[in-house]
Amino acid sequence: MVEAVANIGVVGLAVMGSNLARNLASREGNTVAVFNRSHEKTDTLLSEHPEAEFVGTTDYAGFASALSKPRTAIIMVQAGKGTDAVIDELTKVFEPGDIIVDGGNALFTDTIRREKAVRETGINFVGAGISGGEEGALKGPSIMPGGSAEAWETLGPILKSIAAIAEGEPCVTHVGTDGAGHFVKMIHNGIEYADMQLIGEAYDLIRRGTGKSPAEIATIFEAWNKTELESYLIEITAEVLKQVDAKTGKALIDVIVDQAGAKGTGAWTVQTALDLGIPVSGIAEAVFARSLSSKPAQRAAASDLPGPTDKWTVDDPETFIEDVRLALYASKIIAYSQGFDEIVAGADEYKWDIHKGDIAKIWRGGCIIRAQFLNRITDAYADDPGLVALLTAPYFRTAIEGAQASWRRVVSTAAIAGIPSPAFSSSLSYYDGLRADRLPAALTQGLRDFFGAHTYKRVDMDGTFHTLWSGDRSEIESEGSSH
Length: 483
Prior knowledge:
The chain has 483 residues and is α/β, with parallel strands linked by helices. Helix content is 54%, strand content 9%. It is built from 19 helices and 11 strands. The strands form 3 sheets. It has a 7-stranded mixed beta sheet, with helices on both faces. α8 packs across α11. The chain starts with 7 loop residues before the first strand and ends with a strand.
């Protein structure tokens, strides 16, 4: 048996797992036990990084014996059956008080199930969302761990040692119990979907409306990254747009097939929002836009359907570009506001004590949606912990007030020009729906009562009502509390 010298272990040494193991080993005080079902990957990691504080192991028993107590292992394997298989093996060789961490993109309800099952053995199970991709895993990710307070006591210092640093603070916090960490990571990814779709729509509108080249639009995004839009995604958008394809000499963006894939977390965000009754229309449209892009046969069949007959270009490119920038910012605020609404609803449903300002803090560095205005979100929840909707906070209210005229012009222009802008337009519709004095849901309730006797409530008295709809539509109302 290997001597127990490691304070942390990693199971699964594909790119994310090996990068995380290297990150852990590079931090003072950490020695990392590593294990992979295919021993080849273990050998490769050890041979390529002989300077790292690694302890290579060849089976689960040896992996467990290499770890000091309480044993702590991070699983970095593909979500699903592979995760369950590793958990089963680790529970055979771990003891009560030890800690198993799932660092993959697991569905949070699976994490709730796993935590409950593992807890019965006396072992702690932690679902930890890890954001930042391969580079983040190596250099410092944003980490969203759930699990018990007991597990956080041991795990916290280790995760703080490898997390990204933003304004002097590590981008990690104990999110809540059981599946809270993976739930918040799911919302992070949903917002990421919306953010990327909005950026894509902004690019598309500018290119079609002004005729500017990708390289010229890259310069625009570089300028935007010095405004309130400053973020990782805006930064790398400029890099993607200026890239030239080595084979053809064309802009790389023009040789990439316009079909976007999805790994599931965006869809989970929307499905969960439906279950919780939370409108996340901006995120949903981003998911649907990817689905639509990936239907080449349907798109080809519909390519000759009628649209606007006049060729569209803008009269004043600079003014239009500024309108798009402001529309992008306003829609981005909506995406975050909807995401945090879902966090609030999830915390209430699953009894998690999630501190919303802390979530915004740990998203400031390491993760894909890191952005300057996350500080504004932290401030908003610090000023009003019970904030009902993020976009009603003074800063965001003022920002949207300054952007809404541009936002409306962009959405209407896109519609007239026949350019799809589902995330821009749905975000504006959500905003207008939220601020409306009265919505057509009254008619919906009337229709539901007509065909299904579903009842309705009245604005002028308490109780629940059902109308006895006659053939000539004259109304006879019956009042009750439970029709």
